[in-house]
Design goal:
It contains 12 helices and 8 strands. Helix 6 links the parallel strand 5 and strand 6. Helix 1 crosses helix 5, helix 2 packs across helix 3 and helix 11 packs antiparallel against helix 12.
Length: about 250
Amino acid sequence: MTDLSKPIIGGLPITVEDLDGAARRMIDHAVAARGMDQPPLYSTSANGQVLSMCALEPGVKALFEQADIIHADGEPLVRASRILAKSKLPERVATTDLVHNTARMAEAEQVSFYFLGASQDEIERAVANMKALYPKLIFAGFRNGYVKPEEEDAVIEAVNAAQPDILWLGMGVPREQDFVSRNKARLTGVGVIKTSGGLFNFLSGKNKRAPQWMQKSGLEWVYRIGQEPKRLFWRYVTTNPHAVWLLLTKTH
């Protein structure tokens, strides 16, 4: 969903919102949607890799434009907005931070989570770690993200039966966006879907966040290359220059 009131940053319409505002919107919508039997609010995120992918693959861009909300999960998008966009982004809304802001509110208001993604071991550890941090947080359920095509109907049925307020979906880009596109209309037992990329790798403890100064400087990608050089080096070498060009030429 393209909202003309949103600034275009690197070619995508980005929602102007801070972390607490994003969490509050998710909580409020999820509570209001209970029992309404309607498709969920769909929130996703964009970083440099996403901007590059969307510019090169129109089909992927179309998937992102189906979202009700696209947050800036990358400091360079925030900085570009402050120089070139009609509306300035207040801060980066990284999913790895947003889940904690939302969990704190969810504890107080009895809003339930469902985690879908990663391996079975990782998702179990992610849920256990979140329960340790937020003892009052309600989990409606969880499942690994290795969903075969013939299993998808059963997974949708199970999620709907659990009736989670917020479904955190971590399958990687663009697989998770494609999953939402296929199934959003059927997920009527869910209040909000938040695509989450590699969130569960961090919540499980498999991956660690970069130091705050690297996050604030837009250098988290350097830290991540150090963690997973074989998988990430070529990705960032190829997408980062393209993303910078997009931020300079496709932001207004």
